[in-house]
Specification:
CATH architecture: Alpha-Beta Complex
Order of helices and strands: EEHEEEEHEEEHH
Largest sheet: 7 strands, mixed
CATH superfamily: Nucleoside Triphosphate Pyrophosphohydrolase
Number of helices: 4
Oligomer: single chain
């Protein structure tokens, strides 16, 4: 499903309207999003490298998948749908928190998102969608920590914010 509209929200994630996705990114308006973090039974995190044709952050490493819910779609339904669309599988997800962030990109687009965080476990084979995902890797939390310190520019802005939140949740 190609999401053409995003859900505009206030700082408390109350829906205040809808807008065409690219317009919202050009104007930098706060909208609802989600980020999914999948782990295997050994505690390794599944990271994806964004496809090089993505409209922002192409070729950067990030969490398992992320996107925006469609108007009228729950965050959980959207996260499940997008996990299937990008990574080729679904699993049980749990919402563990949220955060808001804002960043500008070199191409004139801005992300200003109220981002809902989901985690899940998956331990089987899958096939990525090459239109969305260039490649993937499974890494331990310690390996991710080290890479974020040594090569932070290889990772998306939201991943660098979300990862410590997810890590804190895992080790609480």
């Amino acid at each position: 499903m190609n999401i053409s509209e995003v859900i505009l929200v206030d700082e408390l994630d109350n829906e205040i309207g809808r807008m065409e996705k690219m317009e919202a990114h050009l104007k930098g308006l706060l909208h609802r999003a989600f980020s999914v973090f999948i782990f295997d039974r050994d505690g390794r995190m599944l990271l994806q490298r964004r496809a090089f044709q993505k409209y922002h952050s192409p070729g950067l490493w990030t969490n398992t998948c992320c996107s925006h819910p469609a108007p009228g779609e729950s965050n959980m339904a959207a996260a499940t749908r997008r996990l299937q669309e990008e990574m080729g599988f679904t699993c049980t997800l749990e919402e563990i928190g949220s955060f808001t962030y804002r960043t500008a990109f070199d191409n004139g687009l801005q992300e200003y998102e109220f981002d809902h965080l989901f985690t899940g476990e998956y331990n089987s084979k899958f096939e990525i969608n090459p239109d969305e995902v260039d490649s993937y890797k499974w890494l331990s939390i310690e390996e991710v920590d080290k890479l974020l310190q040594t090569s932070p520019d290889d990772y998306t802005v939201w991943f660098k914010i979300a990862f410590p939140i997810v890590k804190s949740y895992l080790y609480q």
